[in-house]
Amino acid sequence: MARDLLRSPRFWPFLLLQACGALADNLYKNALAVLIVGQAGGAGPVLVAAAGGVFILPFLLFSAPAGALADRFDKARLVRLAKLAELLLMLAGAGALVWRNPAALLLVLFGLGAQAAFFGPIKYAIVPELLASEAVPAATGWIEATTFLAILIGTVAGAALMAAPAAVWIVGGTGVVLAALGLAAARLLPALAAATPESACERGIRHQTRALFVAAYERPDIWAAILGLSWFWAVGAVFVTEFPVLAQRVFGAGADLVALLLAAFALGVGAGSVATGRLAQGGVQGGVGLWPVPWALLTMALLSGDFALVTHRFGLVPGARTVRQVLASFAGWHLFADLFLLAASGGVVSVLLYAVLQRAPASRRARMIAANNVLNAAFMVVVALALMGLHALGLAPSAIFAVLAALALAVALVAFRALFAARHTAAIMR
């Protein structure tokens, strides 16, 4: 079944183009971060944080109108327009890298964020229109897996390629090639029917965003899915943000350990996503249901706590360690097993909750996903601010992971309670 899905002319071009986009975005972002740190000296970390804000801001600003457009027009046509915009931005980004112009680099980064914000609601809303309903969970699993793999490759390659001769030419050219490949794949998508929603054109971003959340809140299942997905992205943001700190302060290691931690996390999400997609092949309602979600959240909480304990034990023995030394110990394998299984549990949560959003009525499906994107971005901003505060208080990475574990446990208990309440309500209505 998986082989048939990956060979489907209605799916593989979309899978390819979205992976190319994620890879190009992360390649550019991380190359830009290396360039900023190298040129800005002591102000580098602050500017890198600002660059992250420049990329995430468009998701808060433009997700609402993006959802309205995706619900109103042919999504395949919108994908082609988004990929054309990405190609133009990558051409501009290549020029900005070659000229090493900070203002142009940040402007292109903002443009890529805006392009990603407009593509975001389409990314999951188009799948039920491309495929039969029973294939949607598996397709979503593959999208999640390839997205995280692309993020991993782009993150590592963006930093590594900047150490090569003619680095800016290589990174800029690679970004342009990936964008062109994505546009070519987009041209293979079939035309889709345009929806005619009842209220897709509210005026003003503020009004559109408010309307998104009002509509999402009116559907308890959709609102719960949005909260769960935002929590998943928040947990991911904590781990990915703390990896460099963990490598430096606890292990005395460098970028090679950070890359390995990222690889374990990305591969875990991919494995969990693909496996869940295959198990839920018949759909969330007729297949595995939503009961795995609170159990997966509980697993994430317990593994976060165990991860905190293992990192604390490593911190008790000071001194620099190489990747080989970390992997030569049982504690090192314990650490990576925790990380892989935690990320795999996150993949379970992600696929099953995205399936809830994909069951929304076609006339407002993209707007529900847009509401999710806005809240995801807001959670990630809160995570960044919270981590800044916790580090300012002097908390070690292990203590931060312990705080995360406590919060994750509370989230899992709330999820259990919500699902039991929904089951009780359904039993009464029968």
Number of continuous helical runs: 16
CATH topology name of the largest domain, in short, is Growth Hormone, Chain: A
Q: If classified by CATH, what would the architecture of the largest domain be?
A: Up-down Bundle
Structural class: mainly alpha
Per CATH, the superfamily of the largest domain is MFS general substrate transporter like domains
Shape: globular
**CATH top level assignment of the largest domain:** Mainly Alpha
Unreliable stretches (pLDDT < 50, length at least 5) are none
Please compute the radius of gyration using only Cα atoms: 21 Å
Mean of residue pLDDT values: 87
Would you list the SSEs in sequence order as H and E? HHHHHHHHHHHHHHHH
Could you please describe the fold and organization of this structure?
With 430 residues, this protein is mainly alpha-helical. It has two domains: 1-191, Growth Hormone, Chain: A (Up-down Bundle), CATH 1.20.1250; 220-359 and 393-430. Helices cover 82% and strands 0% of the residues. It has helices spanning 2-7, 12-40, 44-72, 75-99, 102-125, 127-130, 136-161, 167-186, 205-217, 220-250, 255-279, 292-315, 323-327, 330-358, 365-392, 397-429. Helix 2 (12-40) runs parallel beside helix 7. The longest helix is centred in the C-terminal third of the chain and has 33 residues, at 397-429.
